[in-house]
Specification:
- The complex is a heterodimer.
- By secondary structure, chain A is of the alpha/beta class.
- Chain A is built from 13 helices and twelve strands.
- Chain A has an eight-stranded mixed beta sheet with strand order 6-7-8-3-9-10-12-11, sandwiched between helices. Chain A has a four-stranded antiparallel beta sheet with strand order 2-1-4-5.
- Chain A is globular and about 65 Å long.
- The two termini of chain A are about 30 Å apart.
- Chain B is mainly α.
- In chain B, about 75% of the residues lie in helices and about 0% in strands.
- Chain B has helices spanning about 1-30, 35-40, 45-55, 60-75, 85-120, 125-140, 145-160, 180-185, 190-230, 230-240, 245-275, 275-280, 285-295, 300-325.
- The chains are: A alpha/beta, B mainly alpha.
- The interface between A and B is medium-sized, with 29 and 21 residues.
Chain lengths: ~350, ~325
Amino acid sequence: MGDRKKILDVKGLKTTFFTDDGQIPAVDNVDFHIREGEVLGIVGESGCGKSVTSLSIMGLVPSPPGKITGGEILFQDKDLTRLPEKKMREIRGNDIAMIFQEPMTSLNPLFTIGDQLREAIKIHKRDWSKKQINDRAVEMMRLVGLPRAEDLMKEYPHQLSGGMRQRVMIAMALLCDPKVLIADEPTTALDVTIQAQILTLIKNLNEKLNTAVLLITHDLGVVAETCERVIVMYAGKVVEEGPVETIFKDPQHPYTRGLLQSVPDMRFKKDRLYSIPGNVPKPGTIHTGCKFAPRCEFAFDRCINENPDLYQTADNHKTRCFLFDPKEATAHDRTAIKS
Amino acid sequence: MLNYIGRRIFQLIPVLLGMTFIVFLIIRAIPGDPAQVILGQQASEEAIKALRTTLGLDNPWYIQYFEYLKGLLTGDLGESLRTRTPVADEVWPYLAATIELSVFAIVIAVIIGINAGIISAWFQNSWFDYLAMIIALIGVSMPIFWLGLMNQWIFSIELGVLPTTGRENVRDPVDVITHFYLIDTLIQGNFAQFSIVFKHLILPGTALATIPMAIIARMTRSSMLEVMRSDYVRTARSKGLKMFWVVYKHALKNAIIPVLTIIGLQMGLLLGGAILTETIFGWPGIGRYIYEAIGFRDYPVIQSGILIVAFIFVMINLLVDMLYGLIDPRIKYD
């Protein structure tokens, strides 16, 4: 896995929203990368900055009020944060494509499915003939498992179910063979059975087309099923990063542990589901120390005064918690948290 | 679809019927007597009485009303008491003049209003946005007669570039075919006259366009702002589409429906409510026609003139309703 080429490399990304109430760092110094053909998951609660991260990569952060204020996003040796809009448009939908949370409203209600698919090709393949474009659209519709693709081309979004619309969105995203597909909570708005189908589809397409996938979700089940590697985000920062099995077997950051504990387990009957005490800090609140400290049962004085780094705890496994600072190892019994 | 149009037109009958009844009663409630007006102050009692009998004005009002309705059913709009010519024969030149002016005004209002609204929404809170919306606010609150007079003063009297009043150069009248002078002069290939007619349209046209333009700009802006935040606009951008096409194709088509409603209503208002502008600019339109008929207590002309305006108003709105269906596939008529 490690020898595959990094296709997207995000370094120290900072995206800030400038509002009347002050500057809100929605994404704060985020580092991660995706390798060719890899499925990377980003997990976190609502408002932790995972969607803003994906919009930053696409160059679609609503501006004003949002703005990328630091760091770089390297894609094929180009820094996307510094690319002029015209060059960025050539990448959008072509090299990096995105599907969104809301399949019901993500398609334009006034244009046929065919119009919207063909448009996505036309933008980037100007020399293609009409027939080539149409054939490609139909081929993609079949690939994502849409029945009677030719008829669907003439239909309008309101004539399709949510699951079908999300398949159309996926087809639209894959039309130009993107190197990276960003899927921002692609299954949140769908029925559970449809969710599974869409995830399987994304996974299959990833294997078949070798498209790297950045899967953004708040659902750990989705991550377990689909991803190879996972990043846990909290309040605009990456708090833990590692291979999926490691994160599930040996979660280190107290937040990740909390997340995993709050997943219902069918094997044990519990009266109440575990929930992490407290709330996500309000965006924009000025904070010293670890942002999770107020909700953390293991917090000690250092957590309140200093900002933890991302500590390497194993090959590929990193945690932003003082409990895993090699210098703290003696002072605090790490086994306490392991039990 | 045809079914729907048929039903809508059928529903118009009670509306128009009720309207004729109200207009009929109101104009008879105004003091004054057509016979008296026609014959003048010095006329004798007998002469007035005789004329009232000839005009059928001595019948009770309900008989007169049913006579009028009977005429309408056979397509007879009545006869002018003053000129003794059928309204249907003499109304067209006036109506054509008003339609030409209104269409000219609404075209200006739509082109400028919609684009100003779009650009304001696209660059929300920019200097253009602020400027356009301040102008729009002034536009909706400006008295039109004042704007008309100011324009006449500046462009006709001070600068002398545009004519003050009228539709044509009276020493060189247009050879009338359709009574739409722009079309008539074009058919005849008389471009010098076309340009004169066009110049006559500019001042009353812009005066008349001001309020609709401002309303359309504000409506377009708010409608666009809402649509620009929608998910499908983000999808269109994520495909790599140019912002221009995102705005003018994906967003505008969705934002235009409430704007169309406004355009339809404003067009209707222009056709009927342009009396003031037509008076200031000496425009021989339907508003002036009805206004003068009121002075003469020319009942049939007032009744039928208003009926025609009302009919056009409801037809425009029917047309707008049908346009919705063409734009939005989710709207079905059955």
